[in-house]
Design brief:
This protein is an alpha+beta fold. It has helices at about 5-10, 10-20, 25-65, 70-100, 140-145, 150-155, 165-185, 200-205, 230-235, 295-310, 355-360, 385-395, and strands at about 120-125, 190, 195-200, 225, 240-245, 250-260, 280-290, 315-320, 330-340, 345-355, 365, 375, 380-385, 405, 420. About 35% of the residues are buried.
Length: about 425
């Protein structure tokens, strides 16, 4: 969330943010609500001051052995009025706080303005493979090699789920271990194995709630959610903590399954592994001092790209425009892999700097040695990487004319030295 003082003092910046993001929020109604909230606080403070004054008068009357009944009666009347105002204020304040959670983060000035069509390609790496045959998409490859069974997954659960089998299962497991090893042994992250269920406060702190609640899997009868990404439990590890300055930056890597309803995906490409409701992902999370966060963003991006460089897959990096970044993000890069069978670019990672937006919600601070004050940290995360589309890209880029599949060299030690998969 944004600092309320910043919101009050910078209405024009907020208006520009909403316009740049193409985001609907009634800012004027919020300011009016904020004024009403302030009026209540002033009334309560004024009455509390009156009550304190009368309490002093009562003490004086008692010292002089006088009759304090009238003053006591007046004090009780004021107390009753304060209690009534506090009850009204509590309801108003809850509404005010809920509305404040709907105000998005301020985009970094380096972002292109506009919708997704204004996303800027900042890097392209690797060459697209020139096939001497017409490449198949990953759905056909998986069927031919009998390594993913979409039909049985649909029977067990429903549409947009995947069931990996045989080499497909081994490939997923090898990718998870490979990515965790790279990030922990080479890139300096501490591995975390977090819960896959979180409470409402955790989801709210990282920005999934309240806006994206319809896209989340909520556990019936409980205020718990299946995680949409490891970002949620890992970022919340330090909720309500003041971190020692010397402990920063904190760098975590975590593998989890992720669960998303993809409620807004109707009409989009959903076949195969493009938009599944459950997928595996290795996540990277950093907590830094504010002045170091944009350097940390470039580090997360570089660490995610290292995986693709080692897998020798063609990819590109996009700087997202103001209208395409997530609600909580100030700046975001997407990494996309080229899938020749689909002839499409597939997003496999988003690397974001949230500045202090999540930290304010989660009350995560550090002890600033320069000022002596507790200061909000900056939080960042990035996929390092998401497996469903990564698997699709590997199948499509490493397919051979005879229907076999070459195993990426970087994964062979995780697969018993296996170099090729045949029908």
């Amino acid at each position: 969330m944004l600092d309320i003082k910043f919101i009050r003092e910078n209405p024009e910046i907020l208006k520009k943010t909403l316009l740049d993001r193409n985001y609907s929020f009634d800012l004027e109604a919020f300011f009016q609500l904020d004024k009403e909230r302030k009026k209540y606080l002033i009334k309560i403070e004024r009455l509390a001051a009156e009550q304190n004054q009368i309490s002093g008068e009562i003490k004086d009357i008692l010292k002089k052995k006088g009759n304090p009944e009238e003053a006591i009666s007046q004090s009780k009347k004021i107390k009753s009025e304060i209690d009534s105002l506090k009850n009204e204020f509590q309801s108003l304040n809850q509404h005010w706080f809920h509305q404040s959670l709907k105000i998005p983060n301020i985009p970094h000035p380096s972002l292109p303005r506009g919708d997704a069509s204004f996303n800027r390609i900042v890097k392209e790496a690797g060459e697209k493979i020139q096939f001497a045959f017409t490449p198949k998409d990953h759905i056909q490859i998986a069927k031919d090699l009998d390594i993913i069974d979409f039909e049985r997954a649909a029977k067990v659960v429903g549409s947009n789920f995947a069931l990996f089998k045989g080499f497909g299962s081994q490939l997923v497991r090898s990718l998870i271990n490979f990515m965790l090893d790279i990030h922990t042994q080479k890139n300096g992250y501490t591995e975390i194995w977090p819960p896959k269920i979180v409470n409402r406060q955790s989801m709210q702190n990282t920005g999934q709630l309240p806006n994206l609640e319809d896209d989340m899997y909520k556990i019936d009868g409980m205020d718990f959610f299946l995680i949409p990404t490891a970002e949620v439990p890992v970022t919340n590890l330090h909720r309500d903590e003041v971190l020692p300055e010397e402990s920063l930056p904190v760098s975590y890597s975590a593998y989890t399954a992720c669960f998303r309803k993809e409620a807004g995906s109707y009409g989009k490409e959903t076949k195969g592994l493009m938009r599944v409701h459950e997928f595996d992902k290795v996540e990277l999370v950093k907590i830094t001092k504010p002045e170091n966060s944009y350097k940390a963003l470039e580090k997360i991006l570089s660490d995610a790209c290292m995986i693709l460089d080692l897998l020798k897959l063609p990819y590109r990096i996009l700087l997202l425009a103001t209208g395409d970044i997530s609600f909580a993000s100030a700046k975001c890069y997407d990494i996309e892999l080229y899938a020749p069978g689909l002839d499409r670019w597939l997003e496999v990672s988003s690397c974001s700097n949230f500045e202090d937006f999540q930290a304010r919600r989660g009350n995560i601070k550090y002890k600033n040695s320069q000022t002596g004050k507790n200061t909000f940290v900056h939080t960042l995360n990035g996929s390092g990487l998401a497996l469903a589309r990564l698997v699709a890209a590997i199948l499509e880029n490493y397919q051979q004319s005879d229907g076999s599949l070459i195993v990426p060299e970087a994964l062979r030690s995780y697969l018993g030295g296996r170099e090729r998969v045949k029908k």
